[in-house]
Structures are given as structure tokens and as C-alpha cells.
Amino acid sequence: MKKTLFAALFCIPLMCGAAMADNNDRADKAKAKMAELFGNDYVPTLTQTDPDFAAIRDNLIYGELYYQGSLNDTQRTLVTIAGLIAGEQFDYLKQEIEAALNLKIAPDIIKEAIYQTAPYCGIGKAEKAINISNEVFTARGITLPLKSHATVNEENRFEKGRDVQVGMYGKRITDMHKATPDIQKYISVNHLSAYCFGDFFTRTGLSPKEREMLIFAVILTLGGAEGQLQGHALGNITTGNTKQNLIDIAALLMPYNGFPRTLNALNVINKAITDKK
Fold it and tell me: Are 133 and 111 in contact (CB under 8 A)?
């Protein structure tokens, strides 16, 4: 024990060299990933005034988290966009939309990811994100409006939305509809099925699996909605995502959300997946 403590305090050369190599590797990876996402000439503004903070941030996000876990870079970027919208971290959002385009993610797919946040974090946040994306698209010469991905109309939006819910959650939905007091049905039955699932989840462009990832990212970021987070953890499993995917979403958003919400999310994931089994 004393020898271990001595090594930790005074840094045995071999250990110290290994640690330095790891740190340099993180910085190199961060530089390479940021060049891929934001361009070869990208230099974070914060490096001019607060280089220590910028290095901590960038080495963690782009030198570690972008290389860890089960998500690919397209998933990471769309999940980050959803989390930033929910957390109202709009200063980062424009940069992340630029990164999505640099990764060759189609503009309409980026828009679908933004649209999907609306029923979970509110139309105001989503609309602000839409406006930011429109600024980026216009600057890139992308013509607006983009093609529509709507699949429902006024006559079938409730039915189609309910079908999605039942397909994902089964008898729980029909039981919930029956148990909901009449005075509340226009919210938790009609609007939940028609608006939340009918107007949004039925759209093309993103798969149910991808949409559930984004929804999980939004609810995780909002905090204080553990019941809904647990429900959508199960929704993720039903649509083909894995427990590891959910853990990696929580990890990816940890720098933006902080540890309390991240650890709460891990608790929810563990409980939800155990319940599923």
C-alpha cells in the first residue's frame, strides 16, 4: 500500500510517462475528430481566453466520448443535437448542425431530429432550433423548405399514432386509455396519440429505433421525468436499441447535462432493463 501511495504521489517515471502518453493521445484524437466534424481550420474560440477549460472540454468530448461506446458518429451527432435543444444550449447547437452536414447527414434528416424534440421539450425550443438550422442551411446554399416527411392527415393522425404506441407498448396503452379519467382523456389519450405519436413519430426519414434514441436523449436532459425516461428506455429496447446504446447516450450527454442527471439516468436504465427481463 505504501509503495502504491508513494508511486501515486511522486510519479514513478514509467507510470508518469504512460499517463502523459494517454493525455497526448486524447488531445491528438480530439484534434482529429474536431477537424473531421468542424473543418481543418477549426479553432475553438475559448482556446484564446481559457485554454485550460477548452482542453478539458474538448479532450473529454472529442478525444474520448466520440471514440467510446456503441454509437456511430451520425448517431452521436443527432443525439447531441436533441440533447442541446432540450437543455437550451443553443450556443453549441449551430456548431453541431454544421458538424452534421460535414458528416454528410442529409439536411432533412437533421430537421427530422429537431422536429422530434418538440412534443417532449416544447415547441418553443424546437422552433428556435429550427431557426438556427435554417440559418446554417441558407448559408450553405440549401434550399428551403425541405421535402415533407409527413404520413398522416387530420382524419387518421390519432389512429396512426395509437397504432405506433400499441406496437411499441402493447396492452399497457389500451389499459391506460381505459383507466384515464374522462376529464383528462383529451390530453393523455387524444393529444398523446394524435400529436406526440401521430404528428411526429409516424414521419419518415428516421426509423423508430432512431426516434427513440432522440426521445431518450431529450427526456434524460430535461431531468425530473424518471417515469417517462423509464418508459422510453423500454421503448428503445422494443425498437431494437440496446442497454449499451442507452448508457452511451447518457455518457455522450454527460458533459452538457452534468453528473447528477447522468447518474440518475443510469439508475433508470438499470431498473428499466431489469424490469423488461
Answer: yes
At residue 22, the pLDDT reads 58
Phi-psi region of 231 (alpha: psi -120 to 50; beta: other; left: phi over 0): alpha
Tens-place pLDDT, residues 103-115: 999 999 999 999 9
Question: CB–CB of 34/42 below 8 Å?
Answer: yes
Q: From CA 104, how far away is CA 256, in angstroms rounded?
A: 24
Distance of alpha carbon 228 from alpha carbon 235, whole angstroms: 10
Tell me which residue has cell 485554454: 51
Which helix or strand (DSSP H or E) is residue 112 part of?
helix 107-121
**SS3 at position 246:** helix
Instruction: Report the predicted TM-score, pTM, of the whole model to 2 decimal places.
Output: 0.90
Mind listing the domains of the chain with CATH numbers? 28-39+49-139 (1.20.1290.10), 157-276 (1.20.1290.10)
